[in-house]
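Figure 6 in text form: structure in, sequence out.
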């Protein structure tokens, strides 16, 4: 059972504690940045191009939070830049209390037809970038014997769905990495947490659909099956939950003294994971494939 939430501890100079959020220009990252600032954190919002921070800073201005958000450029696939950015943050603020590894993308299609460079790109962004960012931050948290690393994973890290092989593979990797890391870091007072959203209304859906449609030609032997997957996915996206729910959950985790390892969010997400764990696989796969035929 979790302890009650509390206000964030003050920084070394009596100031707000510091959170770093990757991929903060839109979606979960943007909303999480705003929510953490609202809950008492100074937030360094990183993104590939700070020219894309207009929506974030507009909403921050509306909420009178601009003084608590600092935008920095960061491409998580540039590991040298990660080290430089983390060192700059430490030089400026002296500490990092919360790391939210949110930067990500979704590549889909049918596995036989997905080019190796697409697999590599998916893993570079969703997994290797997250590993590099975590490695850069851990020494500073370990020295202070406190901190939280919050990984924005996905239900696709627990359940591989057809049409999303690369994305599922990257998120399964995040899950295994985070389980091992949590056990390594708990003796140092650092909590590693997985947030596993199901379907939420974010830009990753439309970006993913465009990517998929451009890579499955009409003459593909998988075109019929792929179109069924796409119809199902678009219908799911249309009825997806409000992503603010995920941002609020991340803020609650940041404020919790002893967060658990996993937080599964979104309608149907827990049921899918429970179904996979309890049902014989043959039954479970029939249910999934029938859903695609609707």
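Output sequence:
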């Amino acid at each position: 059972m979790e302890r009650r939430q509390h206000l964030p501890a003050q920084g070394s100079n009596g100031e707000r504690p510091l959170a770093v959020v990757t991929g903060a220009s839109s979606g979960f990252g943007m909303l999480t940045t705003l929510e953490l600032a609202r809950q008492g954190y100074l937030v360094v919002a990183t993104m590939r191009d700070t020219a894309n921070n207009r929506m974030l800073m507009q909403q921050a201005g509306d909420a009178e939070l601009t003084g608590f958000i600092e935008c920095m450029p960061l491409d998580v696939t540039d590991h040298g830049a990660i080290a430089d950015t983390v060192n700059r943050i430490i030089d400026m603020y002296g500490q990092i209390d919360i790391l939210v590894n949110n930067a990500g993308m979704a590549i889909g299609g049918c596995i036989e037809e997905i080019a190796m460079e697409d697999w590599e790109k998916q893993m570079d962004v969703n997994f290797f970038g997250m590993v590099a960012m975590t490695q850069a931050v851990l020494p500073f948290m370990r020295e202070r014997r406190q901190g939280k690393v919050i990984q924005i994973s996905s239900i696709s890290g627990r359940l591989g769905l057809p049409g999303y092989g690369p994305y599922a593979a990257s998120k399964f990797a995040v899950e295994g990495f985070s389980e091992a890391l949590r056990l390594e870091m708990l003796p140092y007072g650092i909590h590693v947490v997985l947030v596993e959203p199901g379907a939420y209304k974010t830009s990753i859906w439309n970006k993913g659909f465009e990517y998929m449609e451009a890579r499955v030609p009409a003459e593909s032997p998988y075109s019929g099956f792929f179109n069924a997957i796409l119809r199902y996915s678009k219908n799911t996206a249309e009825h997806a939950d409000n992503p603010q729910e995920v941002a609020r959950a991340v803020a609650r985790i940041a404020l919790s003294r002893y967060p658990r390892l996993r937080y599964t969010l979104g309608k149907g997400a827990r049921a899918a994971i429970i179904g996979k764990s309890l049902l014989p696989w043959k039954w479970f796969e029939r249910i999934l494939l029938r859903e695609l035929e609707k």
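Caption detail: The radius of gyration is 19 Å.
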